[in-house]
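Below is how a single chain appears once it has passed through the pipeline. First comes the sequence as given, then the structure the pipeline wrote out for it. We keep one example in the README because the format questions we get most often are answered faster by looking than by reading.
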Amino acid sequence: MVTPHSMNRRDFSLKAAYAGVLPAIAATGSWGSAKAAESNQEVNESATHAIDLLNRTAHDRSLKDEDVLPPNKTALIIIDMMNLFCDPKWMSGGNAQTEAWLIEEFATIIPNLQQALEAFRKAKGLVVHVVNAKWTLDGREVVPYQRGRDYDLFDTERMSVIDALRPRPGEIQIRKVASSAFTATGLDFMLRNAGIEHVVLGGQYGSACVFYTLIQSREFGFNNYWMDDAILYGGEHSRTVFRPMACAYWARLATTDQVVRALTVSS
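Resulting structure:
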C-alpha cells in the first residue's frame, strides 16, 4: 500500500487517462516497440482502442443474472481495510483534494463491503480479512519495498480492521508483509482445505494489493470476481487502466448487488 499521489476525480477523466497514463504505458513497449516511434496522436488512438477492447471484453465476461456462487465453495477476501489505510487524512499525505476524494470513495466502498460481508455471513460463506503491517520494530521481515513506511505492528489499533468490518469469531484473518494476500501466508492452503473454488475480492488498492492478490489467486486456480464498487483505486487513472485489465483476463467484473444475488440464490 502506498499513499496516493495528489489526485482529484475531475482530473482523471477517461480523456485525461488516455492522454497521459496510457501513452506512457504504450511508450514502454507494452503494445510493441514500433508504437513508441509513432506520433502522440497515433499512440493515444492505439491506447484508447486497446482499453475500449478490454472494457468490452470485461463487460462480456461480467457476472450475469443466471450465475450462482455456492456459499460452501465461495470466499470473500477483504483486503487492507485497516484503520490507518481508511484514514483519508493519512492516506492523502496532507493534500486536501485527495482527502476529499478519499472521503467520497470510502463513503461508497465501506457500505458495499458491509453488504457483501453480511451476505456471506448469512449464507455461511467463508470470510477472509487481510491486513498489512509488520511483526518486528524495524520491519526486517517485510518485503523490501515496504520497509520504512509508517506502519505499526500487527494487531495495534492503527493496523486492525475498521469497526464497520470487524472480523467475527470463525472468520479467517491473514497478516501479510507483502502486497498479495497469498505471499507467505498459507491462504491458498486454507482455501483449498475449505473446498473453495470461487474468490470474491474487495478492499484496497485495485491497482496494488487487490490486483497482486488477484494474479496469485488465478495462479492457484481459483475463479475470481472483481467486486468493483467495493474496491478503492489509487485514482481515476488507476481505475481506467486496472479494472479493464483485471476483468478482461483474470477475473469477472461484478457489483456488490450482483455478488449478493448470486450468493443468495445459491443458499
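The chain has a mean pLDDT of 87.

See the next section for the split statistics.
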